[in-house]
Amino acid sequence: MFTEKLINGNIKSNIYRDDLNMLIDSHCHINSEDLRLEARAVITRAIDADVRKMLIVGCDYEDSCEAAAMAEDFSQFGLYASIGIHPHEAKRYDKIPDAFRRIVKNKRVVAVGEIGLDYHYDHSPRDVQKKMFELQLQFAEEFDMPVILHIRDAMNDAMEILTLHRNLKMLFHCYSGGLEYLNEVLGMGGMCAFGGAVTWSGKASDELREVVRTIPAENILCETDSPYMTPSPFRGKRNEPAYVRYVYEEIAKERGITVAELSRTVEDNAKRFFGWD
Fold first, then answer.
1. Spatial CB neighbours of 54, under 8 Å, sequence gap ≥ 6
2. What is the pTM of this model?
3. What distance in Å separates the CA atoms of residue 143 and residue 173, rounded to the nearest whole number?
4. 21-54, pLDDT tens digit by residue?
5. Which of the four CATH numbers 3.20.20.140, 3.40.50.300, 3.30.420.40, 3.40.50.800 does domain 2-6+21-274 have?
6. pLDDT at residue 9 above 60?
């Protein structure tokens, strides 16, 4: 029904308009408890907002299976998926789920993630986080997949581990390493994704905007992390991929370029990183 509605309605004509900016949400959780029951409406609003590709991110086994299934079901609308075990969930696993070896071969699965270290919440013991992080980096190497990294208050340990896997393509989701770590990240060929926080007020967001002004254009991606990290002017409400436009607008303003110019750059960056069409 959703497919028929999109094809027969106004959305189809919008998809192929050359004058629109093509926006990309490189990190969203449409498979989350907050969004999954409204997935059709969420995707429709994103398409109406000129979002042409969305990456649905997995955080545990069940979540990853659902991400892959959604990406397959809505493939014609530019949905892709990643699979992984989030550091919050690392304590639930002593190995990578066997099914991941099958799911990772799905053509709509384009990355391993989100994976990494989170010392802010420490929902899983740090040694357990490190073990699962290492296992998943090895898994990504085995299947020649890029990785989506969740690193929070753990940059020193993360960079020490990542140095041993410099051959991987790395995307620092919701980059929070500031200028302090930026050169090291760039030296490893890392991409940095920016979300709603770049639109907020406060010292941390001021520092993030400084990073946005400094980072080379070829290392930038845009994301929502929806339903979390909602950009201004909707902060405090549920986030969704349609709001990625506000991230583009803020980054374009900080860099002194147009949204159209930024969208072309991000499109090229995403294609190069994820390998999608």
1. 24, 25, 28, 30, 43, 46, 78, 79, 80, 241
2. 0.93
3. 21
4. 799 999 999 999 999 999 999 999 999 999 999 9
5. 3.20.20.140
6. no
